[in-house]
Amino acid sequence: MLHKGVRSKTIKGLRRLTARWNAASEMDSIVAGHRGRVMNKWSHYFEIYDRHFAPFRDRDVSVLEIGVEGGGSLDLWRSYFGPQAKIVGIDINPKCQAYESPNTFVRIGSQGDDAFLQRVAAEFGPFDIVIEDGSHAFEHQIGTFRSLFPHIRPGGIYACEDLCSSYWEPEFGGGVRKPGTGIEFFKALIDEMNAWYSSDSVDTEPDALAKQLFGIHFHPALAVIEKRAMARPMLVPVGKPEK
Predict the structure, then answer these.
(1) Which amino acids are annotated catalytic?
(2) Which domains does the chain have, with CATH numbers?
(3) Burial of 195: CB neighbours in 10 Å, binned 0-12, 13-18, 19+
(4) Alpha-carbon distance 172 to 168, whole Å?
């Protein structure tokens, strides 16, 4: 879901692009040919997602998206991941229930309700991919990550869209480097990922989060986090030492 001030322009822009799309990826090609329900995503996301999601295609994967809105993104994930994928959408609008189809499920509730998220995770998880495209409110971006990251399989992906809201005032109360925003929270995960090397943790074990963060990728308005079981890094000499 996009900020309301740019949503209509984005829809018109996507329609114009379909006639002359420079397909940078397979997902771009799918989007260019889409003629079904409406979706609202920044156009550069598709190449990025193709890079991170390609290994999951045509597999029995479980994908969760927070923020269904027009239903078009559910169609995109179905086209991209294939018929055997389990696609789950969450939205606060009860009308989105109508977007269910075979192996595509919609649950109605607020991402700000942790008990609701835990019920969805218990019903459909663990997930291979979670895509957060909900309210874009900072407390929801942060709380949803904390609630759902534990329910991602090792080797899975968590993507938080539209971190541009962190910079938007007055709609979201954002600002450059403003404490408490979604982007500042995800920036701080870099330190969590590198807790193995901090001076105060050399002789102690980092917390559980550091043991699950394999990579954090920042793109315009988008953060993609790779989950993988991590052991303490080892420095391994390679090669034959000189005498």
Answers:
(1) 136
(2) 55-227 (3.40.50.150)
(3) middle
(4) 6
